[in-house]
Design brief:
171 residues; mainly beta; eight-stranded mixed β-sheet; two-stranded antiparallel sheet; 2 helices; elongated
């Protein structure tokens, strides 16, 4: 946890809730990474207090998302923000929230996650392996498969009574 330098009676905690798999990928960044911050009910918060979520990434890169608390936020006891991850490189990332108020600064727990926006390497199939393909056809019909698009059928299978078929193709 982070502690403020204010007097001990204002060591109030905001809590960042993180629900997920621990990884943030490109699709999640594009959609907007949300942080839900639970406000400390004992903190002396007033509308206009500033909430800052600091995100620290690899190499000390830093991004800050700032938000001004409203009376509705304080009454609800929580705020959900879209985090600014611009300039944060891939790797382990930490996020922490701080509210600056007239009563002093209050801090949060630290949430750690992995920022991974690189797609995985394409799978490599060994020559002895095969590929299962399937689809839908007329029930009980013969399905002819041309794998090299040369006009001649390389594999044959039969659709089941529901029209579903699968075939293991050796490559």
């Amino acid at each position: 946890p982070l502690y403020s330098s204010a007097a001990s009676d204002v060591y109030k905690r905001q809590r960042i809730e993180y629900v997920g798999d621990g990884y943030i990928n490109e699709a999640e960044i594009t959609a907007g990474v949300q942080a839900s911050i639970t406000l400390d009910p004992d903190a002396e918060l007033v509308p206009g207090d500033q909430l800052r979520v600091t995100v620290i990434g690899a190499g000390g890169s830093e991004s800050i998302t700032s938000y001004t608390l409203t009376e509705d936020d304080i009454n609800a006891g929580s705020v959900t923000l879209i985090l600014d991850l611009d300039g944060i490189p891939e790797g382990q990332v930490e996020a922490a929230a701080v509210v600056a108020s007239d009563a002093g600064e209050s801090s949060s727990n630290t949430v750690t996650f992995e920022l991974d926006v690189s797609p995985p390497d394409a799978p490599v199939l060994e020559e002895s392996a095969g590929v299962i393909i399937g689809g839908q056809a007329e029930a009980n019909s013969t399905v002819l498969i041309d794998t090299d698009n040369n006009g001649s059928y390389d594999f044959e299978t039969t659709a089941d009574s529901n029209g579903e078929w699968l075939s293991l193709i050796h490559i």
